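$ ./design --mode recover --in tokens.txt
reading tokens...
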């Protein structure tokens, strides 16, 4: 449990530093208003991403753990020219291991995977600054950028867990920024298609609400279809139907999510593990996101996308039986930059608690042997199991709260 205690300690320290900074928020915003955006973000990233990486993996000499070793397996084999899905298993999109493999050409070590994640997180943060620049002052956006880099849900999951979920947000806002610059729907569609090929199969879910509100639907659809056909034309002769490996992830039972916390209440009679739960989760997450997008179809695209993104992937996090709390990293940036009211003490308290829980729980749950509760008595069979189940319920409830915050209310529409 040492890693659990380490994550808890780091998380609480991060929260304390953030609370300290919030006491001087107005002064810091005024000071940051006079600073260069690129230099400030680079210095902040160096202090809060590069230095922790060097301290943990170079100075302390710690080895990579958990998902990083899986990414290393994929990336190292891809860098040696092996074929994804045929020569090695992958739950990710086909270009993902090859992108990691490019970075491994510079340093053939699993620690390079962590550095890659940190670099991509920095790019996502920079693009997020430009994505939201029309809505807030430079100083405020830079202040929120520093807060984001300090949050346990980004710092720990990026540097210790080496999670890649933020890549999806990176690609969707990159697509918008390119469209804004070029005024071409085709480039917007191409980047979204590349994002799907570079990240995870669940990236395709955001395309449903985006297609619904898109006015130039054919110009949006045709490039994506062409790229999809070309991808299949390359993959199928090489690997056959093995390119569907990422879909197998939906069958993996994880926690916390709604099925995992209600299963013991129904004495294991709800069919946990069955495919129909995946379809229920898919309909609920995409349905809520599509409804939100339609209600906000006349709003600024950036506002609409930020809220729809949170609704879609936060809902997916608690309704899909294969989801777990690391997915907070997927929607943390729009939550920080747009949804959270940084003057509301209740929201901030819940948000900080949410970050700590989402960081600590996966490691705690895994070290307990990934328990699946079958009866009410199972949840209190030991103090550790009771703590685990309590964290699961708290994360699901808090996720629901932030979905509610992001969902467009009638008066807002």
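writing sequence...
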């Amino acid at each position: 449990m040492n890693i659990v205690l380490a994550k808890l300690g780091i998380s609480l320290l991060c929260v304390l530093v953030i609370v300290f900074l919030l006491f001087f928020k107005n002064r810091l915003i005024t000071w940051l208003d006079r600073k260069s955006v690129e230099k400030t973000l680079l210095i902040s990233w160096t202090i809060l991403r590069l230095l922790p990486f060097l301290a943990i993996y170079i100075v302390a000499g710690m080895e990579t753990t958990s998902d990083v070793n899986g990414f290393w397996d994929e990336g190292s084999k891809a860098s040696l020219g092996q074929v994804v899905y045929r020569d090695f298993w992958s739950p990710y999109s086909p270009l993902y291991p090859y992108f990691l493999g490019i970075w491994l050409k510079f340093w053939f070590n699993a620690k390079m995977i962590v550095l890659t994640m940190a670099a991509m997180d920095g790019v996502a943060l920079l693009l997020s600054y430009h994505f939201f620049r029309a809505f807030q002052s430079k100083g405020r956006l830079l202040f929120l950028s520093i807060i984001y880099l300090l949050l346990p849900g980004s710092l720990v999951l990026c540097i210790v867990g080496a999670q890649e979920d933020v890549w999806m947000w990176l690609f969707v806002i990159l697509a918008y920024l390119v469209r804004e610059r070029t005024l071409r729907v085709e480039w917007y569609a191409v980047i979204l298609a590349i994002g799907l090929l570079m990240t995870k199969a669940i990236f395709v879910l955001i395309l449903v609400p985006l297609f619904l509100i898109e006015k130039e639907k054919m110009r949006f659809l045709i490039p994506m279809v062409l790229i999809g056909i070309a991808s299949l034309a390359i993959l199928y002769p090489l690997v056959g139907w093995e390119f569907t490996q990422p879909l197998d992830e939906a069958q993996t039972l994880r926690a916390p999510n709604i099925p995992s916390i209600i299963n013991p209440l129904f004495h294991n009679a709800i069919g946990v593990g069955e495919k129909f739960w995946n379809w229920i989760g898919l309909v609920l997450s995409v349905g809520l996101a599509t409804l939100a997008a339609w209600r906000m179809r006349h709003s600024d695209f950036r506002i609409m996308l930020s809220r729809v993104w949170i609704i879609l992937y936060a809902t997916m996090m608690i309704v899909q039986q294969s989801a777990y709390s690391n997915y907070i990293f997927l929607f943390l940036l729009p939550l920080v930059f747009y949804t959270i009211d940084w003057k509301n003490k209740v929201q901030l308290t819940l948000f900080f608690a949410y970050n700590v829980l989402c960081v600590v729980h996966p490691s705690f749950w895994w070290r307990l042997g990934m328990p699946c509760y079958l009866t009410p008595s199972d949840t209190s069979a030991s103090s550790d199991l009771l703590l685990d189940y309590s964290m699961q319920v708290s994360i699901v409830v808090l996720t629901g709260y932030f979905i509610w915050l992001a969902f467009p209310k009638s008066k807002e529409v």
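exit 0
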